[in-house]
Amino acid sequence: MGRRTGKTTARLRALALGAVVALFGAVAGMAGAAAETSAVFRIDGNIDSAVPLQLTRADLEAIGMHDVVTVTPWNDELTTYTGPLIRDVLAHVGAKGDSIVAVALNNYRVVFPVSDTRDYDVILAVRVNGEPIGLRQRGPVRVIYPWSEREELRSEVYYSRAIWQMNGMTVVGQASQ
Predict the structure, then answer these.
(1) Mean pLDDT for the chain overall
(2) Are 17 and 118 in contact (CB under 8 A)?
(3) Tell me, what DSSP letter sits at residue 145?
(4) In DSSP terms, which residues pair with 124 in a beta bridge?
(5) Between the N and C ends of the chain, which has fewer C-beta atoms within 10 Å?
(6) CA dist 145 to 44, 95, 102, 108, Å?
(7) pTM
(8) What are the distances in angstroms from CA 15 to CA 19, 21, 27?
(9) Residue 143: which of 152, 129, 155, 133 has the closest Cα?
């Protein structure tokens, strides 16, 4: 067998590196596609379905996207959060309760009244500044109130309802009007 020259070895290394880069790119693309088709949010309780509903990011976005541009307790710069209004999500699933138990990935829970979602444009944020919210950005879903638009919301009561790394909610109580 012939002896490899330095140029041949360099070409083989470049081809191998290109193949590795292409493989990682394909895997990353598949992971991104899986994130869009994997359930990121569960909703159950007093809804039209007898079984918990599992929603993907695309399902939530299809309900209708709304922007809330606000300063938050954890970020003093105006930031654009995007996601469906919680009242639209509740209507979409036929919710009939008066309270929401929001649950985070670590099983942390927050309870807030459904009336908040009628009185204010509270969203289930799935994007921040146009980008999907990942786990490192406290995603996949966050409850965001329009604090900058409504002075009465700038209190610990409403800040405490802004759960992050939310992955589900249970609608409880009696049908609200």
Answers:
(1) 85
(2) no
(3) -
(4) 143
(5) N
(6) 22, 20, 14, 19
(7) 0.77
(8) 6, 10, 18
(9) 133
